[in-house]
Design a protein that fits this description.
The chain is of the alpha+beta class. The protein has three domains: about 150 residues, Jelly Rolls (Sandwich); about 45 residues; about 60 residues, Orthogonal Bundle (Arc Repressor Mutant, subunit A). The protein is built from nine helices and eleven strands. The strands form three sheets. A six-stranded antiparallel β-sheet has the order 2-3-10-5-8-11. Strands 7-6-9 form a three-stranded antiparallel β-sheet, with no helix packed on it. A two-stranded parallel ribbon has the order 1-4. The chain is elongated and about 85 Å long. This is HTH araC/xylS-type domain-containing protein. It comes from Salinisphaera japonica YTM-1. GO terms for molecular function: DNA-binding transcription factor activity; sequence-specific DNA binding.
Length: about 270
Protein backbone atom coordinates (compact mmCIF):
# COMPACT_ATOMS: atom_id res chain seq x y z
CA UNK A 1 0.00 0.00 0.00
CA UNK A 2 1.35 3.48 -0.84
CA UNK A 3 2.25 5.96 1.87
CA UNK A 4 0.32 9.20 2.10
CA UNK A 5 0.83 12.12 4.45
CA UNK A 6 -1.94 13.11 6.81
CA UNK A 7 -2.25 16.48 5.07
CA UNK A 8 -3.17 14.79 1.78
CA UNK A 9 -6.19 12.79 2.98
CA UNK A 10 -8.97 13.44 0.53
CA UNK A 11 -11.64 15.13 2.66
CA UNK A 12 -11.84 16.38 6.22
CA UNK A 13 -13.42 19.28 8.10
CA UNK A 14 -10.36 20.96 9.56
CA UNK A 15 -12.10 23.35 11.93
CA UNK A 16 -9.73 24.14 14.76
CA UNK A 17 -6.21 23.03 13.99
CA UNK A 18 -5.70 20.22 16.46
CA UNK A 19 -9.37 19.21 16.75
CA UNK A 20 -11.31 18.28 13.63
CA UNK A 21 -13.91 15.96 12.20
CA UNK A 22 -13.07 13.52 9.44
CA UNK A 23 -15.74 12.12 7.16
CA UNK A 24 -13.40 10.62 4.62
CA UNK A 25 -13.69 6.99 3.67
CA UNK A 26 -10.79 5.34 5.46
CA UNK A 27 -9.69 2.91 2.77
CA UNK A 28 -6.69 1.12 4.20
CA UNK A 29 -4.01 3.45 2.89
CA UNK A 30 -0.94 3.56 5.12
CA UNK A 31 -0.09 7.01 6.43
CA UNK A 32 2.05 8.71 9.07
CA UNK A 33 1.51 11.76 11.29
CA UNK A 34 4.01 14.12 12.91
CA UNK A 35 2.02 14.26 16.14
CA UNK A 36 0.31 11.86 18.53
CA UNK A 37 -3.36 11.32 17.72
CA UNK A 38 -6.51 10.20 19.43
CA UNK A 39 -9.12 9.01 16.90
CA UNK A 40 -12.66 8.63 18.25
CA UNK A 41 -15.42 6.95 16.18
CA UNK A 42 -18.67 8.90 16.58
CA UNK A 43 -21.33 7.00 14.64
CA UNK A 44 -19.70 3.90 13.17
CA UNK A 45 -16.99 1.42 14.17
CA UNK A 46 -13.64 1.41 12.42
CA UNK A 47 -10.89 -1.13 11.86
CA UNK A 48 -7.23 -0.17 12.19
CA UNK A 49 -3.86 -1.73 11.51
CA UNK A 50 -0.37 -0.73 12.61
CA UNK A 51 2.88 -2.62 12.81
CA UNK A 52 1.14 -5.80 11.71
CA UNK A 53 -1.36 -5.55 14.57
CA UNK A 54 -5.03 -5.05 13.71
CA UNK A 55 -8.05 -4.18 15.81
CA UNK A 56 -11.55 -2.73 15.82
CA UNK A 57 -12.71 0.42 17.60
CA UNK A 58 -16.38 0.66 18.57
CA UNK A 59 -18.26 3.74 19.74
CA UNK A 60 -17.00 3.39 23.31
CA UNK A 61 -13.38 3.14 22.16
CA UNK A 62 -10.68 5.34 20.76
CA UNK A 63 -7.42 4.57 18.99
CA UNK A 64 -4.29 6.23 20.37
CA UNK A 65 -1.40 6.50 17.88
CA UNK A 66 2.12 7.72 18.59
CA UNK A 67 3.65 10.11 16.08
CA UNK A 68 5.65 8.45 13.33
CA UNK A 69 3.66 5.20 13.54
CA UNK A 70 2.67 3.79 10.16
CA UNK A 71 -1.03 2.96 10.33
CA UNK A 72 -4.21 2.58 8.30
CA UNK A 73 -7.97 2.65 8.87
CA UNK A 74 -10.98 1.01 7.25
CA UNK A 75 -14.47 2.35 7.94
CA UNK A 76 -17.89 2.42 6.26
CA UNK A 77 -19.07 5.27 4.07
CA UNK A 78 -20.76 7.95 6.15
CA UNK A 79 -18.71 7.29 9.26
CA UNK A 80 -17.80 10.33 11.30
CA UNK A 81 -14.68 10.51 13.45
CA UNK A 82 -13.18 13.03 15.82
CA UNK A 83 -9.41 13.41 15.39
CA UNK A 84 -7.41 15.11 18.14
CA UNK A 85 -3.76 15.97 17.58
CA UNK A 86 -1.74 15.88 20.80
CA UNK A 87 1.70 17.35 21.45
CA UNK A 88 2.38 15.05 24.41
CA UNK A 89 2.76 11.29 24.70
CA UNK A 90 0.51 9.80 27.38
CA UNK A 91 2.27 6.51 28.13
CA UNK A 92 -0.59 5.40 30.38
CA UNK A 93 -2.79 5.06 27.29
CA UNK A 94 -0.57 2.39 25.75
CA UNK A 95 -1.30 -1.20 26.71
CA UNK A 96 1.60 -3.22 28.09
CA UNK A 97 2.17 -5.09 24.82
CA UNK A 98 1.81 -2.05 22.53
CA UNK A 99 4.68 -0.10 21.03
CA UNK A 100 3.02 2.70 19.11
CA UNK A 101 -0.76 2.19 18.94
CA UNK A 102 -3.38 1.17 21.46
CA UNK A 103 -7.13 0.57 21.55
CA UNK A 104 -8.47 2.21 24.68
CA UNK A 105 -11.84 2.23 26.39
CA UNK A 106 -12.92 5.80 27.06
CA UNK A 107 -14.14 6.52 30.56
CA UNK A 108 -17.70 7.94 30.46
CA UNK A 109 -16.62 11.49 31.34
CA UNK A 110 -13.94 11.43 28.60
CA UNK A 111 -16.40 10.04 26.03
CA UNK A 112 -18.88 12.80 26.85
CA UNK A 113 -16.21 15.46 26.46
CA UNK A 114 -15.01 14.13 23.09
CA UNK A 115 -18.60 14.19 21.82
CA UNK A 116 -18.93 17.77 23.00
CA UNK A 117 -15.80 18.64 21.00
CA UNK A 118 -17.23 16.84 17.96
CA UNK A 119 -20.47 18.82 18.25
CA UNK A 120 -18.54 22.10 18.47
CA UNK A 121 -16.37 21.10 15.51
CA UNK A 122 -19.47 20.49 13.40
CA UNK A 123 -21.86 23.21 14.48
CA UNK A 124 -19.88 25.92 16.25
CA UNK A 125 -16.66 26.47 14.35
CA UNK A 126 -15.99 29.95 15.72
CA UNK A 127 -16.65 28.81 19.27
CA UNK A 128 -14.27 25.89 18.91
CA UNK A 129 -11.57 28.12 17.49
CA UNK A 130 -11.82 30.20 20.65
CA UNK A 131 -11.61 27.27 23.08
CA UNK A 132 -9.46 24.81 21.13
CA UNK A 133 -6.31 25.11 23.24
CA UNK A 134 -8.10 25.10 26.65
CA UNK A 135 -10.11 22.12 25.43
CA UNK A 136 -6.95 20.21 24.54
CA UNK A 137 -5.48 21.04 27.94
CA UNK A 138 -8.64 19.82 29.66
CA UNK A 139 -8.67 16.61 27.63
CA UNK A 140 -5.00 16.05 28.45
CA UNK A 141 -5.85 16.36 32.14
CA UNK A 142 -8.71 13.88 31.78
CA UNK A 143 -6.52 11.38 29.97
CA UNK A 144 -3.97 11.62 32.75
CA UNK A 145 -6.47 10.70 35.46
CA UNK A 146 -6.21 7.19 36.90
CA UNK A 147 -9.70 6.19 35.79
CA UNK A 148 -8.81 6.80 32.13
CA UNK A 149 -5.51 4.90 32.09
CA UNK A 150 -5.40 1.60 30.22
CA UNK A 151 -3.08 -0.01 32.77
CA UNK A 152 -2.96 0.18 36.54
CA UNK A 153 -0.03 1.47 38.56
CA UNK A 154 0.69 -2.10 39.62
CA UNK A 155 0.97 -3.27 36.04
CA UNK A 156 3.15 -0.29 35.19
CA UNK A 157 5.50 -1.29 38.02
CA UNK A 158 5.63 -4.81 36.57
CA UNK A 159 6.44 -3.45 33.13
CA UNK A 160 9.14 -1.25 34.59
CA UNK A 161 10.68 -4.18 36.44
CA UNK A 162 10.71 -6.31 33.28
CA UNK A 163 12.24 -3.46 31.30
CA UNK A 164 14.88 -3.00 34.01
CA UNK A 165 15.93 -6.64 33.74
CA UNK A 166 16.02 -6.52 29.96
CA UNK A 167 18.00 -3.30 29.87
CA UNK A 168 20.62 -4.65 32.26
CA UNK A 169 21.00 -7.95 30.39
CA UNK A 170 24.58 -7.69 29.18
CA UNK A 171 23.96 -10.23 26.42
CA UNK A 172 21.69 -7.77 24.58
CA UNK A 173 22.27 -4.28 23.22
CA UNK A 174 18.76 -2.87 23.36
CA UNK A 175 18.73 0.92 23.52
CA UNK A 176 16.88 2.79 26.26
CA UNK A 177 14.32 4.12 23.76
CA UNK A 178 13.71 0.72 22.20
CA UNK A 179 13.32 -0.93 25.60
CA UNK A 180 10.94 1.82 26.74
CA UNK A 181 8.71 1.46 23.67
CA UNK A 182 8.71 -2.33 23.90
CA UNK A 183 7.20 -2.11 27.38
CA UNK A 184 4.66 0.62 26.68
CA UNK A 185 6.57 3.69 27.90
CA UNK A 186 7.62 6.79 26.07
CA UNK A 187 11.40 7.30 26.40
CA UNK A 188 10.94 10.47 28.46
CA UNK A 189 8.48 8.86 30.88
CA UNK A 190 10.62 5.76 31.11
CA UNK A 191 13.66 7.78 32.16
CA UNK A 192 11.59 9.63 34.73
CA UNK A 193 9.94 6.60 36.37
CA UNK A 194 13.19 4.62 36.14
CA UNK A 195 15.07 7.29 38.10
CA UNK A 196 12.23 7.55 40.64
CA UNK A 197 12.31 3.79 41.21
CA UNK A 198 16.02 2.98 41.03
CA UNK A 199 17.71 6.27 41.89
CA UNK A 200 19.74 6.61 38.69
CA UNK A 201 19.20 7.03 34.99
CA UNK A 202 18.75 4.03 32.66
CA UNK A 203 22.04 4.87 30.94
CA UNK A 204 23.90 4.95 34.26
CA UNK A 205 22.33 1.65 35.29
CA UNK A 206 23.40 0.01 32.02
CA UNK A 207 26.95 1.29 32.42
CA UNK A 208 27.16 0.04 36.01
CA UNK A 209 25.86 -3.41 35.00
CA UNK A 210 28.42 -3.67 32.20
CA UNK A 211 31.27 -2.60 34.48
CA UNK A 212 30.24 -5.19 37.07
CA UNK A 213 30.10 -7.89 34.41
CA UNK A 214 33.45 -6.77 33.00
CA UNK A 215 34.99 -7.10 36.45
CA UNK A 216 33.79 -10.71 36.61
CA UNK A 217 35.24 -11.49 33.19
CA UNK A 218 38.57 -9.92 34.10
CA UNK A 219 38.68 -11.86 37.35
CA UNK A 220 37.52 -15.24 36.07
CA UNK A 221 38.71 -15.50 32.45
CA UNK A 222 41.75 -14.81 30.33
CA UNK A 223 39.75 -12.96 27.71
CA UNK A 224 41.59 -9.98 26.28
CA UNK A 225 40.49 -6.48 27.16
CA UNK A 226 39.61 -5.92 23.52
CA UNK A 227 37.33 -8.97 23.35
CA UNK A 228 35.61 -7.96 26.59
CA UNK A 229 35.07 -4.46 25.23
CA UNK A 230 33.60 -5.87 22.02
CA UNK A 231 31.29 -8.17 23.99
CA UNK A 232 29.68 -5.06 25.50
CA UNK A 233 29.38 -3.29 22.16
CA UNK A 234 32.43 -1.04 22.51
CA UNK A 235 34.11 -1.03 19.12
CA UNK A 236 36.65 1.44 20.44
CA UNK A 237 38.62 -0.33 23.18
CA UNK A 238 39.95 2.99 24.45
CA UNK A 239 36.42 4.15 25.25
CA UNK A 240 35.80 1.00 27.28
CA UNK A 241 39.11 1.43 29.13
CA UNK A 242 38.28 5.06 29.97
CA UNK A 243 34.83 4.17 31.31
CA UNK A 244 36.13 1.21 33.29
CA UNK A 245 38.88 3.30 34.85
CA UNK A 246 36.48 6.10 35.69
CA UNK A 247 34.26 3.68 37.62
CA UNK A 248 36.87 1.46 39.27
CA UNK A 249 39.94 3.68 39.55
CA UNK A 250 42.03 1.22 37.50
CA UNK A 251 42.47 0.35 33.84
CA UNK A 252 41.15 -3.16 33.04
CA UNK A 253 44.59 -4.77 32.74
CA UNK A 254 45.75 -3.20 36.00
CA UNK A 255 42.53 -4.28 37.73
CA UNK A 256 43.06 -7.88 36.59
CA UNK A 257 46.66 -7.91 37.78
CA UNK A 258 45.75 -6.53 41.22
CA UNK A 259 42.91 -9.03 41.71
CA UNK A 260 45.13 -11.96 40.77
CA UNK A 261 47.95 -10.75 43.00
CA UNK A 262 45.51 -10.68 45.92
CA UNK A 263 44.32 -14.19 45.08
CA UNK A 264 47.91 -15.47 44.90
CA UNK A 265 48.73 -13.96 48.29
CA UNK A 266 45.62 -15.39 49.89
CA UNK A 267 46.45 -18.80 48.46
Amino acid sequence: MPDIDSASQRTRDDYAGDIYLSRCIFDGQVHVHECHQLVVPLNAPMEFETGGVSGRADLSNAVYILKGARHSFNAPTGGSFLVINMDQDYEGLLSSDAQDTSLICLAPHVARFTRYLAHEAEFNREGLLAVARPSLDMLSTMLGRPESKAVSQEKRAERLSTAYGELLDCSTFSSVSTTARRHGFSPANFRRVFREKYGLSPKAAVTRARIDHARSLLEQTDDSVKSIALSFGYENTSSFIDIFERHTGHAPAVYRSKVREQLDRSA
